[in-house]
Amino acid sequence: MAAMTSSPPPAAGIVTVHLLRHGEVHNPAGVLYGRLPGFGLSELGERQARAAADWLAGRDLAHLVASPLQRAQQTAAPLAEATGLDIATDERLIEAANVFEGRPVAGGSGLLRDPRMFRYFLNPLRPSWGEPYAEIAARVLAAAGAARDAARAAGGYEAACVSHQLPIVCAARRATGQRLAHDPRKRRCSLASVTSLVYDGDVVVGVDYHEPAADLPAGHGAGA
Questions:
Q1: 72 or 101: which carries more pLDDT confidence?
Q2: Average pLDDT score, the chain
Q3: Of 40, 41, 126, 203, which one is least surrounded by beta carbons within 10 A?
Q4: Which SMART domains match (predicted)?
Q5: Is residue 164 annotated as part of the catalytic site, yes or no?
C-alpha cells in the first residue's frame, strides 16, 4: 500500500493515532490466551515488533501507550527505545474478554462438539461468548482519544497505542461506520500491523492501514 503522508502540524487540529497490534505470541498449546498472564512474544514476534518500531520511529510520535498485557508491553519496548518515549499503560487497550479463554480453540470445531458451549454461540452479533463489540469499540476509541490529546499536549501530532486484534478491528469498524459484527476470517489486522486513525479535532476523518512486518513470516495469531 502507498505510504501515508505526514499530517499537518497540531495547530491545524490534525492528529494521527496509530493502533499497533502486538507481534506473534509464544503459544505452543494453541490456546485462546486472551487476558491470561505469561503469554509473551515468540522470537518471530520480537522481530515483528522491531519491524513495526522501525516504521513508526520514522513518524513524529509524541506519545506511546500500551495494553497492560505482556505481549503488548513487549511490542512497545523497541518503539520506546527507538523514540525515547516512556510507555504509558491504558487498561482500555486490553484484549477482549472471552469465556473460551485458556481453551484450545484453533478452528473452533472442538467447542462446537461440546454441548456445554452451545449457549455461548446463541448471539454471534453481540457476541454472546464475550465482551460486546460495542463496548470494545467504545473503550478503545476512548483510549485513542486520550492518546491523541496527550500527543497534542506534548506539542506533537502523532501517537501510538499497542493493542490487540479484536479491539483494533472494533475501533476501526466503528470509526468508519461499519457494522461491528463481522467474519473474524476477514479481519484486516495482521500481527504487528498498524491501523492509523486520523483525527481532525476530535473526529476521525480517515483510517489507514500498513503492515511494517510484511516481509517477515505471517506467524500465528490465535487468541491475539
A1: 72
A2: 89
A3: 203
A4: PGAM
A5: no
